[in-house]
Amino acid sequence: MAVIFLGPAALYALVFLILPYANLLAYSFWKVENYAVVRDFNLGNFQRAITGSSYLPVLGNSLLVAVIVTAISAVLGYALAFYVAFFTGRARHTLFFLMVIPLWTSFLLRAFIWRLILGREGIINSGLSWLGVTDEPISVLLFNRFSVCIALVYVFVPFVAIPVYAALEKIPREAIEASMDLGATAATTFRRVILPLSIPGIVAGGIVTFCLSFGDFVAPALLGGPSGLMISSVIITQFGSAFDWPFGSALAVIVIVIIGTAVILARRLERRHG
Amino acid sequence: MQRRHFLRTSTAFAVGAAAGLRLRPAIAQEGGTLRLLTWEGYADDAWVKNFEDAHGVQVAKTYVGSNDEYMAKLAAGGGDYDLVVIVSSLGRRAINAGFVEPLDLSLIPNFQSIYPRLQSGGFIRKDDQVFGAPTFVAISPITVNTEVIPEGNDFGLLFDERFAGRIAMWDDVSTLGDVAAWMGIEDVWNMSDDQLEAVKQKLIEQKPMVRTYWSQAGEAIDLFMNGEVVISNSWSYITSELKARGLPVREFYGSPPSAAVDSHFIVSGTPSRELAHAFIDHILSPQSQGAIAEISGYTPSNPQSVDFMPAETWKTMGLDAVGEVVERMNIWEDIPRRSRYLEVLSEVKAA
To answer: What ipTM goes with this model?
Structure first.
């Protein structure tokens, strides 16, 4: 019985997890010569990633975007979940449902829609011009880090709000009442009771947001403009037109290490405060 | 009832398929099949059907979605195909790798009537042997919105302060070639470090004026349609698509422009060598090339096609001027330091 159930799972892990990662790691130490991959162990790819003038700035930009998006999504997502969990009464389930609906549509579509909102002839510019506020369309709304962050925050707020909402739901109302009965103010109750109990939700949502926005390709490609280059685009180029799979693999390994470190730090934070 | 009907049809289908499988070798012996690996649009019935009828054969078309795809198929053996269309930047690589075999030009009389510049292109030649027949030419133009930029035919408009914030650039190594050519660099696919650095600095200088870099034609069309940009180095397809959607645009060529040339090559070891030669001669003929221009809008490689397309087509495609452009354009060739070129593009964006 156990074999029937666990056998496919183990096979899945082997085929879709262990082998691909091992392959990626192996490739990162190989090189390309005359459009053929040479299985010759060397550290050249990692050296190039560190010394090349574009790779560290691009990694830095990805990190910056990921930090900004995670911070804003965490605050907004938390506030949204808090509001829905405690202040909406019987409309609570409907609102939660509405929060989930956007996740049914394609991520690509949700990023692309921001072009239509922020563009020169987009909703905001048309509105401002109609109201007579501006004569010329405002072009700084689109094709920069700002527009990438807005789109990613919009996409990832539910990713934080949903686990936080689940955590808030589980907090026994008696615990909150007890705190208030014992004379704690609303602020103290939030700080000493609600927040600590909802930290696992924030960490879970925050990790997902950080990882996915760090490695996002769609938003920077559609909305990033001339300066919005992020690491995923560079990696994709290596596997496409550059035909340098080993170098692309090395960059991917670096991304995995950075994200892995961030996840470990977050888990530690959670253990200390949770 | 429905289920039984389904079973009956599927059984019939299976039997038919099995019969078909058995029949296939017999047909091949009778008339033959020519297996063509190409792009959709490059093998239209308008110039394939008459070949099939004339030779009593079938042309089996397989379409590719990217240049990497056919190179991968050829690298995997290529035995499933007799003919393949290869872009000029990969021609040399395919020849050197032994994916394709030399042509017997005596079987392709029409080769002599294509533009001389294309006949002598390095991307189809090695050691005095010719391996490919240039069939389709794609010159990269600059597309401009005529409402905002009614006049001027200079590549430098892409660097003009007046259009700051409304300039787009194609995110491709071809752009490096375009800019280098405009800066007066000769061998644009073989730039030295200093030359690449100069091009990079030029692009970094331009960057604050650039709205965005695009990589898909659809993206560029969208940028023009939404009024985000008014000028970009581009593809003829983009200009014609914008015109079709009613946007006032025009295009002109840089000095000199870059161009991709797609050629038909014969896959090494094909059993249908003669038929493959016949097909190449057929697709280079003025008749086929005229049909290609008229139906697909690709620039023909055979100028004698003028007599086999409507005068209007020749005129709207500006083919009078193309003859001269073909002589001076920078044909995409293999870029020996391709990864460095791509790195320069990244460095511009990361600067």
So the answer is: 0.83
